[in-house]
Specification:
The protein is α/β, with parallel strands linked by helices and 168 residues long. The chain has helices at residues 16-21, 44-56, 68-75, 92-101, 115-124, 141-160, and strands at residues 6-8, 26-29, 59-63, 81-83, 108-112, 128-132, 165-166. It has a single domain (6-166), classed as Rossmann fold (3-Layer(aba) Sandwich). It contains 6 helices and 7 strands; from the N terminus they run E-H-E-H-E-H-E-H-E-H-E-H-E.
Amino acid sequence: MLFPTYYYASAYDIPYKKLYEEGKRGVLFDLDNTLVEHGAPADDRSVRLIKQLKDTGFKVCFISNNKEPRVKGFNEPMGASYVFKAGKPGKEGYLKGCEQLGILPSEAVFVGDQIFTDIWGANRSGIESYLVKPIAFHEEIQIHFKRIPEFFIVLFFRLIHRKRCFLS
C-alpha cells in the first residue's frame, strides 16, 4: 500500500497523453511540493500543465489537506475542481474528488510527493498513484520527519521496480 504505481522526477514529466489513450479520464493532484513549492501560488508552469490536461480531455481536481483559502486561491487561475481538508490518507477526499469529476477511481490517477499521505491514500482508494520528487525541501517539520522512513521505502521500491521509475 505504500509503493506508488510509478515514480517520476516531476509531475511535469508524466506522459499524460498516454494515460488518456489508456482510458484515464481524471488527474488528481496534491499541491504543495508536487506542482509548486510549499505555500506558493500557482505559477505559469502549473497553469500551463492544467490547461494542457483539460485540452487533452482530462478532468482535474486538487486534493489537499490544506484549508479552503489556500486551495481555492491556488485553483483560481485554473478553474479545476478541488477538495480541501481532504483528510489524506483517508479515502474520503480521493473518492469525493472522483465524484466531483464524474469518474470512477479506476479512471483516475493521483500525483503527489508524499508516501504516507498522498500515495497511501490513493492506493487505498483504488487510484493509480504517481510519486514525484518534492520540488523543494523547506517544509513543515512534521513532513521532514516523515521523509526519513519515506527514503527507505523509495529506495526499496526503486530496487524492486526499476522499470516503474522514471527519474532524470
